[in-house]
Amino acid sequence: MWVAGGAVGGALCAAGIPAALVAEETSIEERLARLEEMASRSGGGFLSAKGDWFSLGGEVEFEYIDAQFEPAQDSSASDSPFVHIDKWVLYPKVTLSDDVSMTGEIEFTPTAARVEEWHVTFGGFPWGSWLRVGFDERFSKANGEFDMANRLTEDYPMIGTAWWRDEEYAVTWGGKVSPKDLAWLQSVGWRLTWGDGLELNERQQTENDTYEITHDDDQAADTLKEKNEVGAGLVFGFDPIHETYKFDVAVWSYHSNLNRDEQARLRAITGYTAILEPEAAPSNGAPLVDETQERFGIRSTHVYRGVTVTGEYATAEDGKLDRHGEYLQGAYKFRFDPLWRRYLTSVEPVVRVERYTVENLPRSFSHAETWDREKTTLAALVGVAHGTMLKIEHYDNEERTGGDDDVLTPSDPHNDEWMIQLEVKF
Fold this sequence. Notes:
Layout: H1 2-14, H2 19-22, H3 28-42, E1 46-47, E2 53-67, E3 82-95, E4 100-108, E5 113-125, E6 129-137, H4 158-163, E7 167-177, E8 185-195, E9 199-203, E10 213-217, E11 229-241, E12 245-257, H5 260-268, E13 292-304, E14 307-318, E15 321-332, E16 334-335, E17 346-358, E18 372-385, E19 388-400, E20 417-425
Antiparallel strand pairs: 1-2, 2-3, 2-20, 3-4, 4-5, 5-6, 6-7, 7-8, 8-11, 9-10, 11-12, 12-13, 13-14, 14-15, 15-17, 16-17, 17-18, 18-19, 19-20
């Protein structure tokens, strides 16, 4: 046994495994038990060459898109219908110690590969809080990390595309505490963040590349963004009927500045210069732009006997441009054990109705970022098997474009869309 133990220990040490795990006085059984404990705590994985615990997950999304559009109205739209691999994503995670971990997201598409997310999290701070440093999602994203909200669908709400879809370089301090002796209040969470912000750009509101809205983008036009952003958020969790009804309320806010690229971009939007207050112009003759950039949102998710309802309102100020939007989403998951034994584990219908409004710009058909919009999403999320889901989604889009309601400049273009996706997670 000693010889075998020494051989195993030597091999593990050669691989860089911590000495505490391969000490001579521990038996093979004890070492294997320790490895199994580490694997169970992290959800699986293996030891890296440096002796840290490493795990790797991922997902693949294969889609069919069928979108209405008129090429004469928007030449940027993709030919439809079409089938493509939307993305292949890898999720590496390294656990360096009980208090330090590193997480990444590497995304491959048919045309590019990029690091979509990367951050290190340090735990063990007062009140059970943590500090996160790196390239990370805005904490306001509806993905279940900040509050209970989850968009569920492949498609983002319009205010998500506008303000919290992308990642940014930031330092974030966050945590959650559970107050005592308060009957309904179950938890209080917080986030404070400082980062370089996101830059104004444009992005389509659904899967097909057409009729874009103004979007906070992580792809800066210049290497140096000339931006700083601070953000704060609070979330209160309530449990008025234990295990039957719970809800939370989250508020978030970001404050930043418009850089020169963003100021120039705003000046190029139809009607923007007309709403500028009289100001002294710089030497190049272009009007000055208010550098203020603010975002504010409030969101609440309610869960009652398996029914989940989420509502969110968000508003933004970019110089003199004011926008706001809201949505209401409902879902219920029917679970099977599984039906037909293999290929139907659940069905979750999702309904979302939403509105997006540009407050103070005249609508211009030639510039889709000035349009007011309404949208209804109907979806069925079908659990096919372990790690495999079929998403069937329909987007009913209504726009007020300022057009003349003719063939080339319709007041409400035909741009509804079907999306069918096979998502495989591992």
